[in-house]
Design brief:
Blueprint lengths: L17 E3 L6 H14 L8 H22 L12 E2 L4 E3 L9 E2 L20 H5 L5 H12 L1 E2 L6 E2 L7 H15 L6 H16 L4 H12 L4
Antiparallel strand pairs: 1-3, 2-4, 5-6
The structure holds zinc ion.
Protein backbone atom coordinates (compact mmCIF):
# COMPACT_ATOMS: atom_id res chain seq x y z
CA UNK A 1 0.00 0.00 0.00
CA UNK A 2 1.20 3.50 -0.81
CA UNK A 3 0.19 6.53 1.23
CA UNK A 4 0.69 10.20 0.42
CA UNK A 5 3.81 11.95 1.67
CA UNK A 6 1.96 15.07 2.75
CA UNK A 7 3.40 18.53 2.04
CA UNK A 8 6.63 20.22 3.21
CA UNK A 9 6.82 21.73 6.67
CA UNK A 10 5.94 25.44 6.75
CA UNK A 11 3.54 25.06 3.82
CA UNK A 12 -0.20 24.77 4.25
CA UNK A 13 -3.36 24.08 2.27
CA UNK A 14 -5.03 27.37 1.40
CA UNK A 15 -8.49 25.72 1.61
CA UNK A 16 -8.15 24.50 5.19
CA UNK A 17 -5.09 26.25 6.64
CA UNK A 18 -3.56 22.86 7.44
CA UNK A 19 -0.10 21.39 7.02
CA UNK A 20 -0.17 17.69 6.05
CA UNK A 21 2.34 15.15 7.34
CA UNK A 22 2.76 11.64 5.89
CA UNK A 23 -0.67 9.96 5.68
CA UNK A 24 0.68 6.66 7.05
CA UNK A 25 1.39 8.56 10.27
CA UNK A 26 -2.33 8.56 11.07
CA UNK A 27 -3.64 5.22 12.36
CA UNK A 28 -7.23 6.07 11.46
CA UNK A 29 -6.30 6.85 7.83
CA UNK A 30 -4.74 3.38 7.44
CA UNK A 31 -7.71 1.70 9.14
CA UNK A 32 -10.13 3.68 6.97
CA UNK A 33 -8.51 2.41 3.77
CA UNK A 34 -8.25 -1.18 5.00
CA UNK A 35 -11.93 -1.12 5.94
CA UNK A 36 -12.73 -0.35 2.28
CA UNK A 37 -11.23 -3.79 1.62
CA UNK A 38 -13.56 -5.35 4.19
CA UNK A 39 -16.54 -3.60 2.57
CA UNK A 40 -15.62 -4.66 -0.96
CA UNK A 41 -15.33 -8.27 0.27
CA UNK A 42 -18.65 -8.23 2.15
CA UNK A 43 -21.57 -5.84 1.53
CA UNK A 44 -19.81 -4.35 -1.51
CA UNK A 45 -21.74 -1.11 -0.98
CA UNK A 46 -21.95 0.74 -4.31
CA UNK A 47 -19.73 3.84 -4.26
CA UNK A 48 -22.52 6.22 -5.23
CA UNK A 49 -25.17 8.29 -3.44
CA UNK A 50 -26.45 6.86 -0.11
CA UNK A 51 -24.83 3.42 -0.45
CA UNK A 52 -21.55 5.20 -1.19
CA UNK A 53 -21.94 7.46 1.84
CA UNK A 54 -22.54 4.32 3.95
CA UNK A 55 -19.38 2.81 2.45
CA UNK A 56 -17.42 5.91 3.50
CA UNK A 57 -19.08 6.03 6.92
CA UNK A 58 -18.21 2.41 7.69
CA UNK A 59 -14.55 3.18 6.98
CA UNK A 60 -14.69 6.21 9.29
CA UNK A 61 -16.54 4.23 11.99
CA UNK A 62 -14.17 1.26 11.98
CA UNK A 63 -11.12 3.55 11.89
CA UNK A 64 -12.47 5.28 14.98
CA UNK A 65 -12.96 1.88 16.63
CA UNK A 66 -9.36 0.96 15.78
CA UNK A 67 -8.08 4.16 17.41
CA UNK A 68 -9.98 3.47 20.61
CA UNK A 69 -8.66 -0.12 20.62
CA UNK A 70 -4.99 0.80 20.26
CA UNK A 71 -4.76 4.32 21.68
CA UNK A 72 -5.57 6.15 24.91
CA UNK A 73 -8.57 8.46 24.63
CA UNK A 74 -7.54 12.10 24.40
CA UNK A 75 -7.04 15.09 22.15
CA UNK A 76 -3.27 14.85 21.64
CA UNK A 77 -1.30 13.27 18.81
CA UNK A 78 -1.57 9.51 18.81
CA UNK A 79 -4.65 9.55 21.01
CA UNK A 80 -8.11 8.14 20.29
CA UNK A 81 -10.96 10.50 19.43
CA UNK A 82 -13.90 10.97 17.07
CA UNK A 83 -11.87 12.97 14.54
CA UNK A 84 -10.58 11.52 11.26
CA UNK A 85 -7.04 12.14 10.09
CA UNK A 86 -6.21 14.48 12.95
CA UNK A 87 -2.65 13.17 13.22
CA UNK A 88 -1.93 13.90 9.53
CA UNK A 89 -3.94 17.07 8.78
CA UNK A 90 -2.57 19.56 11.28
CA UNK A 91 -3.77 23.04 12.09
CA UNK A 92 -1.22 25.54 10.76
CA UNK A 93 -2.86 28.86 9.93
CA UNK A 94 -4.35 30.51 13.04
CA UNK A 95 -7.99 29.50 13.45
CA UNK A 96 -7.66 26.19 11.57
CA UNK A 97 -8.32 22.81 13.22
CA UNK A 98 -6.85 19.31 13.08
CA UNK A 99 -8.48 16.55 11.00
CA UNK A 100 -10.77 16.18 8.00
CA UNK A 101 -14.00 14.84 9.50
CA UNK A 102 -15.66 14.59 12.91
CA UNK A 103 -18.15 11.95 14.02
CA UNK A 104 -18.93 14.07 17.08
CA UNK A 105 -19.67 17.26 15.11
CA UNK A 106 -19.87 16.64 11.34
CA UNK A 107 -20.77 20.28 10.77
CA UNK A 108 -17.29 21.35 11.92
CA UNK A 109 -16.04 20.03 8.54
CA UNK A 110 -19.01 21.09 6.41
CA UNK A 111 -20.74 17.71 6.56
CA UNK A 112 -24.46 17.39 7.35
CA UNK A 113 -25.48 15.91 10.71
CA UNK A 114 -29.12 15.51 9.65
CA UNK A 115 -30.90 13.92 6.69
CA UNK A 116 -32.73 17.17 5.88
CA UNK A 117 -29.35 18.78 5.12
CA UNK A 118 -28.03 15.98 2.89
CA UNK A 119 -26.22 16.84 -0.35
CA UNK A 120 -28.15 15.79 -3.46
CA UNK A 121 -25.79 16.95 -6.22
CA UNK A 122 -23.47 14.89 -8.42
CA UNK A 123 -20.06 15.93 -7.10
CA UNK A 124 -18.08 13.36 -5.09
CA UNK A 125 -20.10 10.40 -6.47
CA UNK A 126 -23.24 11.95 -5.03
CA UNK A 127 -21.59 13.27 -1.88
CA UNK A 128 -20.09 10.06 -0.50
CA UNK A 129 -17.57 12.02 1.60
CA UNK A 130 -20.23 14.60 2.51
CA UNK A 131 -23.31 12.62 3.52
CA UNK A 132 -21.18 10.09 5.44
CA UNK A 133 -21.47 12.64 8.23
CA UNK A 134 -25.05 11.47 8.87
CA UNK A 135 -24.35 7.75 9.64
CA UNK A 136 -21.06 8.77 11.27
CA UNK A 137 -23.02 10.89 13.73
CA UNK A 138 -25.38 7.99 14.44
CA UNK A 139 -22.39 5.92 15.60
CA UNK A 140 -21.18 8.73 17.85
CA UNK A 141 -24.61 9.48 19.35
CA UNK A 142 -25.36 5.78 20.00
CA UNK A 143 -22.18 5.59 22.10
CA UNK A 144 -21.78 8.96 23.75
CA UNK A 145 -25.38 10.16 23.69
CA UNK A 146 -26.34 13.82 23.52
CA UNK A 147 -28.38 15.71 20.98
CA UNK A 148 -28.20 16.25 17.26
CA UNK A 149 -27.36 19.91 16.58
CA UNK A 150 -29.94 20.20 13.79
CA UNK A 151 -32.97 18.34 15.17
CA UNK A 152 -32.25 18.99 18.85
CA UNK A 153 -33.42 15.40 19.52
CA UNK A 154 -31.64 13.68 22.39
CA UNK A 155 -30.14 10.18 22.42
CA UNK A 156 -29.49 7.93 25.41
CA UNK A 157 -26.11 6.49 24.44
CA UNK A 158 -24.68 3.25 25.84
CA UNK A 159 -21.74 5.19 27.29
CA UNK A 160 -18.04 5.18 26.44
CA UNK A 161 -17.45 2.13 28.67
CA UNK A 162 -19.77 0.15 26.38
CA UNK A 163 -18.42 1.52 23.08
CA UNK A 164 -17.61 -1.99 21.89
CA UNK A 165 -21.34 -2.86 21.82
CA UNK A 166 -22.03 -0.24 19.18
CA UNK A 167 -18.86 -1.16 17.27
CA UNK A 168 -20.09 -4.76 17.08
CA UNK A 169 -23.59 -3.64 16.04
CA UNK A 170 -22.20 -1.64 13.11
CA UNK A 171 -19.76 -4.40 12.15
CA UNK A 172 -22.51 -7.03 12.11
CA UNK A 173 -24.93 -4.82 10.16
CA UNK A 174 -22.43 -3.61 7.57
CA UNK A 175 -20.60 -6.91 7.01
CA UNK A 176 -23.44 -9.43 7.23
CA UNK A 177 -26.77 -7.66 6.72
CA UNK A 178 -26.54 -4.79 4.22
CA UNK A 179 -27.11 -5.26 0.48
CA UNK A 180 -24.86 -3.37 -1.97
CA UNK A 181 -27.66 -0.91 -2.81
CA UNK A 182 -28.48 -0.06 0.82
CA UNK A 183 -29.95 3.33 1.66
CA UNK A 184 -29.68 5.15 5.00
CA UNK A 185 -33.12 3.74 5.84
CA UNK A 186 -31.83 0.21 5.14
CA UNK A 187 -28.86 0.89 7.42
CA UNK A 188 -31.20 2.02 10.18
CA UNK A 189 -33.14 -1.24 9.95
CA UNK A 190 -29.98 -3.37 9.70
CA UNK A 191 -28.22 -1.79 12.70
CA UNK A 192 -31.36 -2.09 14.86
CA UNK A 193 -31.64 -5.75 13.79
CA UNK A 194 -27.96 -6.34 14.58
CA UNK A 195 -28.43 -4.80 18.04
CA UNK A 196 -31.41 -7.11 18.65
CA UNK A 197 -29.44 -10.13 17.46
CA UNK A 198 -26.48 -9.36 19.71
CA UNK A 199 -28.07 -7.88 22.83
CA UNK A 200 -31.83 -8.56 22.80
CA UNK A 201 -34.88 -6.61 21.72
CA UNK A 202 -35.16 -4.53 24.90
CA UNK A 203 -31.43 -3.83 25.30
CA UNK A 204 -29.70 -0.48 25.70
CA UNK A 205 -27.93 -0.79 22.32
CA UNK A 206 -31.29 -1.20 20.54
CA UNK A 207 -32.60 1.95 22.24
CA UNK A 208 -29.40 3.89 21.53
CA UNK A 209 -29.19 2.98 17.85
CA UNK A 210 -32.91 3.61 17.26
CA UNK A 211 -32.84 7.01 18.95
CA UNK A 212 -29.66 7.98 17.11
CA UNK A 213 -31.10 7.34 13.64
CA UNK A 214 -34.26 9.22 14.62
CA UNK A 215 -32.17 12.16 15.87
CA UNK A 216 -30.46 12.49 12.45
CA UNK A 217 -33.80 12.29 10.63
CA UNK A 218 -33.51 8.78 9.15
CA UNK A 219 -36.60 6.67 9.72
ZN1 LIG B 1 -12.75 6.28 1.97
Amino acid sequence: MYFGNGIPANYYLVSSGQNVVQLAGALDVAAHELTHGVTSSSSNLMYLNESGALNEAFSDIMSTAVEFYFQTPGTGRGQADYLLGEDAFRAFRPGSINGIRSLENPRAFNQPDHYSARYTGREDNGGVHINSGIPNHVFYLAIEGGSDRTSGLTVQGVGAANREQIEKVFYRAFVFLLPSNATFSTARAATIQAARDLYGATSAPVTAVTQAWTAVGVN
